[in-house]
Design a protein that fits this description.
Blueprint (H helix, E strand, L loop, with lengths): L1 E3 L2 H8 L6 E6 L5 H14 L4 E6 L9 H6 L4 H10 L4 E3 L3 H4 L17 H5 L3 H16 L3 E5 L3 H13 L5 E5 L19 H6 L2 H11 L8 H12 L6 E10 L13 E9 L2 E9 L3
Parallel strand pairs: 1-4, 2-3, 2-5, 3-4, 5-6
Antiparallel strand pairs: 7-8, 8-9
Bound molecules: pantoate.
Pantoate (PAF) binds next to β2 and α7.
């Protein structure tokens, strides 16, 4: 496995890579969810192709300085995982090496980011799009893999690639979960033991809502009420950020369930923000 820490080192390394190139962008603190992205990347490109991982905690996508400061950083362990998974190249730049001091161009998303995380984290998806497009320009992958836990992120990246004609195929991978249903996240390691024990509540709330789909229920409010019921009794450290039912296509709220929808939730346990989602198809 090779590594690089600057864009110019990455470009030099890239000259020796075999196509196809599958890319897994991450912010590190790798967990089983990331490892499954890496494994799927290898399946896509085969032994002859190249699997590239980036590890970069992107300051542009953080709206709270404390969140950026407390985001887990575990580079030596991450590199070990990548080595064990047979990754060909890991790019792990510092912020100073990645962004020029006077960088002044950003990618803006104006429709899909108006609800869910986009509404509660100002500028978050502009930061995500900017870093992902820059990484795509550097790595020039044929494929890039993203987890479906970040549902809105995946939709926005697909839209960016479509609208800006990036020659990258975006592949969404199912959310990996602990045995109690909690979606794997780098942030889980910052939960207290008591909050960790309570956190599967998010998944239970989403499943309670999804159960209504079998009844043919069309009222979004009923789905949200079913989920809300499961949130009663959460510890005082719990604070709901949002619970919304939106169209899978536009990510805008629906007044009636006449198309495929997704319910997404974000909640804080103390300072730790968790997200999850579930698709609803009220056939
Ligand atoms: O999902 C993440 O880890 C990040 O948002 C990403 C895509 C690596 C961009 O920084």
């Amino acid at each position: 496995m090779n590594t690089s820490t600057t864009p110019s080192e990455l470009r030099e390394a890239r000259a020796h890579w075999q196509a196809p190139i599958a890319f897994v962008p991450t912010m590190g603190a790798l967990h089983q969810g990331h490892l499954s992205l890496i494994q799927q990347a290898r399946e896509i490109v085969g032994e002859e192709g190249t699997v590239v991982v980036s590890i970069f905690v992107n300051p542009l996508q953080f709206d709270r300085p404390d969140d950026l400061k407390n985001y887990p950083r575990t580079l030596p362990e991450d590199l070990r995982y990548c080595q064990e998974e047979g990754v060909d190249h890991v790019f792990h730049p510092s912020s100073a090496d990645f962004y020029l001091g006077d960088h002044s161009i950003q990618v803006l998303e104006k429709k899909l980011a108006t609800h869910l995380c986009g509404a509660s984290r100002t500028g978050h998806f502009d930061g995500v799009c900017t870093v992902v497009l820059k990484l795509f320009n550097l790595v020039q992958p044929s494929h890039a893999l993203f987890g479906k836990k970040d549902y809105q992120q995946l939709a926005i990246i697909r839209r960016m690639v479509r609208d800006l004609s990036s020659p990258v195929e975006i592949i969404g991978i199912e959310t990996h979960r602990e045995s109690d249903g909690l979606a794997l996240s780098s942030r889980n390691r910052n939960l207290t033991a008591r909050d960790r024990a309570d956190a599967p509540r998010l998944r239970k709330a989403l499943l309670a809502a999804q159960n209504l789909a079998a009844t043919g229920e069309r009222q979004p409010a009923r789905y949200l009420a079913a989920a809300q019921q499961q949130l009663a009794g959460a510890p005082v450290s719990f604070r709901l950020d949002y619970l919304e039912l939106v169209s899978q296509d536009t990510l805008q709220p629906l007044s009636t369930l006449n198309e495929r929808a997704v319910i997404a939730i974000a909640a804080f346990y103390g300072e730790v923000r968790l997200i999850d989602n579930i698709e609803i198809d009220a056939a």
